[in-house]
Each structure stands twice: as C-alpha cells, then as structure tokens.
UniProtKB/TrEMBL annotation:
Coiled coil feature spans: none
Name under which the protein is recorded: FMN reductase
PANTHER family for the chain: CHROMATE REDUCTASE (PTHR30543), NAD(P)H-DEPENDENT FMN REDUCTASE LOT6 (PTHR30543:SF21)
InterPro entries attached to this UniProt entry: Flavoprotein-like_sf, FMN_Rdtase-like_dom, NAD(P)H-dep_reductase
Residues of the NADPH-dependent FMN reductase-like domain: 2-139
Organism: Amycolatopsis vastitatis
Pfam families to which the protein is assigned, alphabetical: FMN_red
Taxonomic lineage of the native organism: Bacteria, Bacillati, Actinomycetota, Actinomycetes, Pseudonocardiales
GO CC annotation: cytosol
UniProt GO MF annotations: FMN binding; oxidoreductase activity
Domain of life: Bacteria
Amino acid sequence: MLGIGGSLRTGSQSERALQIALDGAAEAGVRTRLLTGPELVLPFYDAGVPERDERATRLVEAIRQADGLIVVSPGYHGALSGLVKNALDYVEDLREDRRPYLDGRAVGLAAVAYGWQAAVTTLEQLRTITHALRGWATPLGGSINSAETKFDEAGGASDEKTVRTLRLIGRQVAEFAVTRTV
C-alpha cells in the first residue's frame, strides 16, 4: 500500500491524515509505504521527455508495485496542491504497463483544507483524477476541515470521527487490494 501526499511542510495536517489512513491499512494486514513532501518535489511532468530523475523514477516504481494507493492532498484555493497533482501526472508513465495507469487498484482519497468548500472540492477533484487513471476510488472519502479538526504528533486528531473515517479508508483500500491479488 502506497501513501502519496502531504505538503512541503514536514508534519503537515495532510501528511498526518495520510499516516492515519495508512495505519488503517496496516491494521488490515498490508505493508505500507509513505511518500510525502520532499520526496514529491519532482520536475514538472512532461510526457515528451522520457528521462526521469531519481525521485520521479522512485515514485513511478512505487506506484507500479503498489496494489493500492492512498492519496491525501491539502486543498489550496479550492483545488488539490500542485505537488500532489504533479506526482499523479507521473502515473502516465504506466500507460504501457501490464496494469496500465491505476487499473485494478483501489485508491483511498482524502482532502484537508481550512474550510469545508475547499476540502469538498479537492476531494471531488481527486476522485475525478482517480477515475481518469482507471483507479477504483473507495466508497468512503474524507473531506477534513482543518479549521475544526487538528491532527497531533501522536497519530490522532481532535475529532475521533475523522480518525475513524481515515482508518476506514485505509482498510477499504487494503481489503480491496487483498481480494484482487488472491
């Protein structure tokens, strides 16, 4: 299970939300890996340039090997972050694979923004991108208003419902991945 997201700020609210969702996947018995912040600082994706730097190659290989993904983006001005969008653009490199794009993989999604409008619209965009990449968005997605919910360093949040939702998203991805690979 691969977690992608967060922001350039180590320990950001969206990175902490992503870790909680990955913890839910781990509780379901799958191995998890996290790619956030500096690991996602990549050259702008260009399909016409076949060469990839080390970080982009690592990202594409991690996605290729993953049986499921969890993507959490901060909501900036009503949209997902450029950092997360650019990382997702690299999925295009999988177009010729045996499993093209995100085909046959569950993708858990959540958005963290300072306000409900940005959180909801960012989640909607993540779902649209997931569908365009042939991924199976989990039935449950998370829209988290960081004006109301604060994540802590211990892996929790001020709102227990948010923690339960994120863990359930992780479990849904893990359960789908296990049933697809058996």
